[in-house]
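Researcher: Next entry in the queue.
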Amino acid sequence: MSTAQNAIERFSQYQRELRDAQSAHCAVRDVLDRIGDKWSMLMIMELAMGSQRFSELHRAIPDISKRMLTQTLRDLERDGLVTRHVFPTRPPTVEYRLAPLGQSLLDPMAALIDWADRRYSEIHAARVRFDGAPGDVPS
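Model: Structure for this entry, 139 residues:
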C-alpha cells in the first residue's frame, strides 16, 4: 500500500471514529489546524534557519501583525514545536528556536513545499480558468 493510500486509510478511520463517538476531537484535525493555519508554517520555516528574536521574525514575515506573531509563537510553543529562551540581560533578550518536535516537521513540510513549487503553474492556470469562466458561480 502506498504512503498516500495508507494516510488516507488512517484519516478515514479517524473520521469514522469521530462520527461513531459523536466526539468533537480528532487527533489529525487537531494537529493540522495548528500547522495549517496562515502563519505557523512560515514561522517554522523561518526558525528552521536558526534561532530568532521576535523582531527578527517580524522583519522576516512583515505582513503579520505583532499580535498575531505573539499568538502564533505561543501556540507553537504550547504544542511543543517551538521553544522560548529568555536571557538575563537588560532588557531581557528572548529567542525562539525550533524544538525537536518542530524539527521533525521539516521533512514533511519540505515535501509539501516541493509539491507546491512544482505544481504552482497548474494551480495558477486552474485559478485563471475558474475565475474567468462566464456564468459559473463558485459554490
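Model: DSSP finds seven helices and three strands in the chain.
Researcher: Noted, moving on.
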